[in-house]
Amino acid sequence: MAERPRSGGPLKATAAGTRQPSLTDVAGVAGVSHMTVSRVINGTGPVRPETRARVLAAIEELGYRPNSAARALVTGRTGTLGVVALESNLYGPASTLYGIENAAREAGYAITISSVSRPGRSSIADAVENLRRQAVEGVIVIAPHVSAGRALEAAPADFPVVAVGGGEAAPVPVISVDQRDGARRATEHLLALGHRTVWHIAGPEDWLEARDRELGWRETLERHGVGVPRVIRGDWSSRSGYEAGRSLAKEKDLDAVFAGNDQMALGLLRAFAEAGISVPRDVRVAGFDDVPEAAYFTPPLTTVRQDFIEVGRRTFGLLAGRMDGGDRHARALVVPELIVRESTGPR
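RE: above sequence
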């Protein structure tokens, strides 16, 4: 038999079993009006602390779950955020999405994801509009590509949108890791070990992060007054790092390399091993990202760590600010950390 509340009628049984408790059931157990229960759930009015405690206890006892659609009608909020994400298994975008999901979950929000295969102006605009039609309260665009940054120019001015990446000129609030500073840290670390210069395997030219890492590397060499070698371009993959390593193995004065990400560094290490070049005895190598496997490369990889949990937290903070009518041009940078391991260890 279904359990009776302390006051009011019993919970009605259905063919499928006991029905889900209602707001009225919670009111009966707590000994308050259904309007008071609604105020506690939706945060729409003053309720005395002792009354709130009784309502919450009744909700817990009955296992009551608020109707999200009804709650949205009352509060104007759905408790759901949208994320426009690139279809990618690369470590950076995937970890960024995880950091955002983690921050949203801690704040009590659900996430609806719209994936795009090509980050063009129309595809991102369509994804934002599609999420908006689903009544999300705001949208986060993960925008690592140059084209994605430009697409943000079409973001609706009357709807909260923020970007992770997207470039300095984006007309929405932007959060990013300071890629230039991370590249500076890696390059200065290698120069401080006594190397004449540092070679660089850069990521794709149409990625904002690749551009900033290359710029940070170049600026650091120029500031130290050392020669700037030609850039070797990769595509973030281990294979492109391997091909770059085969090319670099032919250079006579090579003794330090900064790879634009850890996957390219992995391919580089393989190519050097095949060519009989010992790391770090003959050449020192640093990467970027600190993927979970970086500590288990041969040798363990010196790299730049990005705090994606912090990126997610600050992204959510920017979006919350926009949902409350905050600055459309807010900017935030997360400082990366250099992790030193054996790939730049003593010769």
